[in-house]
Amino acid sequence: MTASNDPTPPAIDLDAEERELIRSLVMADPELVLSDDMVMRTLLGATARGARNIVDLRDKLVERLEQRLEQLVHTNRSVIAAAYENVAGTQQVHRAILALIDAPDLGEFLRRLTREVPAMVGVEEARLCLEADVDGIRPADSLAEGLGGRVLLAPEATVGEYLMLEGDTSPGPVVLRLCGVEAELIFGALTRIRSEALLRLDLDGSTGLLAFGAADPDRFGPDQGIDLLTFFGGIVERLLARHLGVPAAG
To answer: What mean pLDDT is predicted for residues 66-80?
Structure first.
């Protein structure tokens, strides 16, 4: 005798009460059926043969597949958008680094860093704050001409205090956050900056702060990655130390 290849299980005689129980279970939780590939193949095969006593779940199956497809498309778009943003950001930072490396002296380096680099990386402002033996925050006019107050000298410990304004007692090398009223200390009293990226610079015997400011409050936030900015801060730290004639801490 040849065994049958038909995967359909033999029919089972059910009374009305048992049928109603099964029906209520399926109606209450369709996933009991939809998640079982063998059950779905059996049901679809039965409806294709014209059986009328089996609930046709094809519409529900199609609906679920459409939902899964929509979720997959949304996920793919999010991944592609994040990858594109990462590539674009990397290219921006690379252009900025090349511009800084080519600066022939300290003055030109500072001008490029605070005037040209912001546009290259898509922000409105940049400030460089260097701790020194001074009584208050003031423009570093002695370093170079044409800085327009974008490079500042500040009393010792100013950088650490500014980084900890949001209550973080041990901030890392990069802090991303919304701006408070204290941002006026760095960006000026009439600033339009609403979010900031703060890069701590460790120089031999002193500390610096490179602050990027954006008018968009969503431009910088604590949930964003900092790897690229950490890399950029390390490059700026080394180039600045070279122009100042001091070793970088790293």
So the answer is: 74
Asked whether the predicted pLDDT for residue 146 surpasses 90, the reply is no
Write down the H helix ranges in the chain.
16-28, 31-34, 37-48, 58-101, 106-111, 117-121, 158-163, 184-187, 227-244
**Among the four given CATH numbers 3.40.50, 1.10.1740, 3.30.450, 2.40.50, the one describing domain 105-244:** 3.30.450
Residue 95 φ/ψ region, left for φ over 0, alpha for ψ in the -120 to 50 degree band, beta for the rest = alpha
Nearest to 123 by CA among 147, 89, 87: 89
d(CA 54, CA 202): 74
Band (159; pLDDT cuts 50, 70, 90): very high
Q: Per-residue pLDDT for 248 more than 70?
A: no
State the pTM of this model: 0.67
The dihedrals phi and psi of 179, each to the nearest 5 degrees, come to -90, 140
Rounded Cα distance, 152 and 146, in Å: 13
Per-residue pLDDT tens digits for 92-135: 899 999 999 999 999 999 999 999 999 999 999 999 999 999 99
In whole angstroms, what is the distance from residue 136 CA to residue 152 CA? 10
Q: Where do the domains of the chain lie?
A: 16-56, 105-244
| Strand pairing class (206-214; 195-203) | antiparallel
